[in-house]
Specification:
There is one protein chain. With 190 residues, the chain is mainly alpha-helical. The chain has a single domain, classed as Jann2411-like domain (Jann2411-like fold). It contains 7 helices and 4 strands. It has a two-stranded antiparallel ribbon. A two-stranded antiparallel sheet has the order 3-4. The longest helix is centred in the middle third of the chain and has 23 residues. The radius of gyration is 17 Å and the shape is globular. The model has no long low-confidence stretch (mean pLDDT 89). The structure holds zinc ion.
Length: 190
């Protein structure tokens, strides 16, 4: 059955691909919502939309039906959640999750991923796309935060706050921002 989530640019609002990947659930708070990464096809389609798949004709097929890749991707997403939640809350990063992520990131370097002189990464295989994603996560986790990682007050999706004054509260005005405004209006005008 092919029920792959139809990814759109509305799923890529975080300003960092690692955070976009962490946001592949309908909501993260107050509890984890529907998993948008619900099949290997959805994973392939997401990587494709994120432009992380190598330009190989058969790349799209590689993950189709591969539960291993899906499990690996979901596991990495959980590491991202733990690490970025800590970053958002201003806590030390969880050592176990960071060690796991570094381990994931180092796998495939050379065989599945090429690293350019400027540190840019290019996946050579579909598997390499997951390594590249892990490297993006490491980079963001260990970067000093001039653009802090924050999460949406309403749904918990992560984003890098590039707003002036660093006061962004919503993942998107189109969704949560407008809903919050409407809720405020309703409570002010009963
Ligand atoms: Zn939101």
């Amino acid at each position: 059955m092919n029920t792959a989530t139809a990814w759109s640019d509305d799923h890529f609002i975080a300003g960092d691909v690692a955070l976009d990947f962490a946001n592949t659930v309908y909501r993260r708070t107050p509890e984890i919502g529907i998993d948008l990464l619900d099949s290997a096809n959805a994973l392939t389609a997401w990587l494709h939309h994120a432009k992380l798949l190598p330009a190989l004709d058969d790349a799209r097929d590689r993950f189709d039906g591969s539960q291993t890749a899906l499990c690996e991707a979901r596991r990495m997403r959980e590491l991202f959640w733990g690490i970025f939640e800590a970053k958002t809350d201003g806590r030390d990063l969880p050592a176990d999750a960071l060690a796991d992520l570094l381990d994931t990131a180092r796998r495939g370097i050379g065989s599945d991923v090429a690293v350019g002189p400027d540190g840019s990464t290019a996946p050579l295989t579909a598997q390499g796309a997951l390594t590249v994603l892990a490297l993006h996560g490491v980079r963001l986790a260990l970067s000093p935060s001039s653009q802090p990682v924050r999460s949406c007050d309403r749904c918990g999706w992560f984003f890098t706050d590039t707003s002036r004054g660093r006061r962004r509260r919503w993942c998107s005005m189109k969704t949560c921002g407008n809903q919050a405004k409407a809720a405020r209006y309703r409570s002010a005008h009963p």
